[in-house]
Predict the structure.
Amino acid sequence: MNIHEFQGKALFRESGIAVQDGVHCTNVEQALAAYDSLGSEVVAVKSQIHAGGRGKGSLYAPDTGELVMEGGVKIAFSRKEVENYASNILGHRLVTKQTGPAGKMVNNLYIEAGCAIAHEYYLALLVDREADSVLIMASTEGGVDIEEVAENTPEAIHKEWVDPREGLQEEQKNSLADSLGLTGTAHDSFVEMIGQLERMFVERDCSMIEINPLVRTEGDIMIALDSKVSFDDNASFRHPWRAELRDLSEEEETEVRANQSGLSYVKLDGNIGCLVNGAGLAMASMDVIKLYGGEPANFLDIGGGANKESITTAFGIILEDPNVEGILVNIFGGIIRCDMVARSIIDASREVGLEVPLVVRFSGTNHKEGKEVLESSALDVITTSTLADGAEAIVGAIGGGSS
Amino acid sequence: MSIWVHEDSKVLVQGITGSQGTFHATRMIEYGTDIVGGVTPGKGGQTVDLPGRSVPVYDSMAEAVSDTGADVSVIYVPARFAASAIIEAAEAFHELNDGGMIVCITEGIPTLDMVRSIGHIADKPGVRLIGPNCPGIITPGDQGGCKVGIMPGYIHAKGRIGIISKSGTLTYEAVAQTMGIGEGQTTCIGIGGDPVSGTGFIDCLAAFEEDSDTEAVVLIGEIGGTAEEDAAAWAAENFSKPIVGFVAGATAPPGKRMGHAGAIISGGKGTAEEKFAAFEAAGIHVARDPSAIGEVLRGVLIEAGLRET
């Protein structure tokens, strides 16, 4: 789960991590009131969407597609500029290199007091899956695309791994501060901040905290000028406060609905819908469709606890996509029995009014019974027993690959 | 032989009185697994009736291990308690047995709980964890065998192929394809698709290298992370038997989690293409078509002089 910059900064503030004063706004009037209340002549006017690269993004009018403004993060030097930028941002689509060409509608704005920057750094905490521990990365190359830094000058990124039993050690904090070349009050302020960040990361079950840029002010204080915070969804049960921070408008509506039925769904651009049990097999099914000349319309894992209701929901979600011209069901029965899936398919096809070609591949537990159930029904379905035959049949049934 | 679990392994079930625990304990015993007891805190002293035997329930892993001499434990407890169950099992095996095998089936465990659990296991060299979020491990025997997990036992047969996979049902697919060309398995291991987990590909390969009955390995990865690349680099230097490799997710879009928490291409890294390339560079026989894993394996075995046709 991701949250907005302004929400991340509110959590920073609660944890004692230094941020500038700022106000979250949803309209231009609020933005102007925020400017008045902040008492800072220079402010940052920042688009709030769940994607990076906002500063270098472009805003487009949603109806005409016309370019409204370059840059989703602006520095305003007057009240008039705040008004101008806020109205160019709110209600427009922000396209960044992370949003895809459709961009994201900006409904939220953050007005933040400016500060005198001496240097910009990069700081991130994340779970390193290769080392099975929390990794802290710091770099003097802040304010730029860190992936480029990692590619071109990996030595400019200093890394420290946190031992889960010992915690983050004082010498590690100092070593991170030293790697940034910090001295005096900036050094002390960084060491304090990194301890608070590590505590927040663990206490709130984060999967990532990224601050880019982290800045040293001319007064030699370290301030988090940005925040990108995401949480581990598996830990949501012990963090009920997260519900309030969730912005469903930032998530794919069908993916959220699928999730509520125990399904895992990701929409793709092709024309062959897939319904599969197991994430790996679901990916493999997509891959095989492609190898046989088709294009998968989605990833869909019905999970180990699938039943008639969730399978009906799955068919409904697949068919909502107007590009879908055929469906491949691929079930390797383990705990799930193929005959149960067969009966669910028959019911679901009646309920959702299935009109596109359907190919069902059954293997594993009760595959023969499942096949019999389908073949003795009135449903127009091709059954196969191997994945290759299934993929070939569905690509053939829709008359070849994507048009 | 086989690796890590054998026909004579004694297995405990953590969470045996829960519906999942009882259901799968029953399936395991039907397959031939020697289930010797279970653990559910607060239910010590009870018994659970399984096909052909009734097994004792203990309050703690320490009691269960010292009473039964078990060397394997399989965990079916809910996600919020699973990390504690892993740590409890690790401590009991370490202190009482000098080691043991923990297989965690549970999915949805918080990542930082897993970081803590792995931290606990790291200093207990005899303790091995498989999973979490995995189908488990199975060693088919002459009759029955040792199944520790949730896979359908009957699709397997004893043979000479080792199988390692991050996925559940895709492992079954690979098993079915080896069976399709008349090859059985020494041991099949589902290592799970979570970002932080126990045993990885390299540990499995190292064990298969040592196992004289294993003559070839099928390795199934998926997008995300660099475990496949690391395994390929290791295998090029240290593994002498043929490997057939597949990576799921060639058609997955970047930045989207494909079901498994770990299956995500992030920052352009962890693509199937990179992993296939690493396999090829390491001399691993690539099956780009997952429905052709069996046929690629057949070709590899013929080439290695391990079968005629």
